[in-house]
Design a protein that fits this description.
This protein has helices spanning 3-23, 25-32, 39-64, 71-96, 106-125. With 127 residues, the chain is mainly α.
Length: 127
């Protein structure tokens, strides 16, 4: 997969979560903590807004890095993207799944895992 397309895809995935966290933060909090109310719910909503802001930074960096031209630099960028998304996938699985007894959020696991795999694969195809 060409570098520019891969980086665009890598930027779109966090953009989707950014929009979701900014538009309906209560949905995510109540899915993870059905009994949340009052101050606990407000703290959770605030954390989702903060996560949306941090995701905005990631989206901007990924989108702007599409302009990198040297193949060696592109490989380094794709390696960083692959490692970052792989670690995020592992954190989601470990923190939401067996360690805490919460239901595993399948869409984020699939999205982050797929981007990690595609980034590693795209890195091997650069020449």
């Amino acid at each position: 997969m060409p570098y520019k397309i891969m980086m665009s895809i890598a930027a779109i995935v966090p953009l989707i979560f950014l929009i979701a966290f900014a538009v309906v933060p209560q949905f995510f909090i109540l899915q993870a903590y059905p009994g949340a109310e009052g101050l606990g719910l407000e703290i959770g909503v605030t954390q989702r807004y903060i996560m949306a802001g941090m995701l905005f930074i990631v989206v901007c960096l990924l989108f702007q890095s599409r302009k990198v031209e040297k193949v060696d630099n592109q490989k380094e960028m794709l390696l960083g993207v692959a490692i970052g998304f792989a670690v995020m996938c592992a954190v989601i699985i470990l923190m939401e799944g067996p360690l805490r007894g919460l239901p595993l959020p399948v869409p984020p696991v699939i999205a982050t895992g797929a981007i990690a795999i595609l980034s590693f694969w795209s890195r091997t195809k650069l020449s």
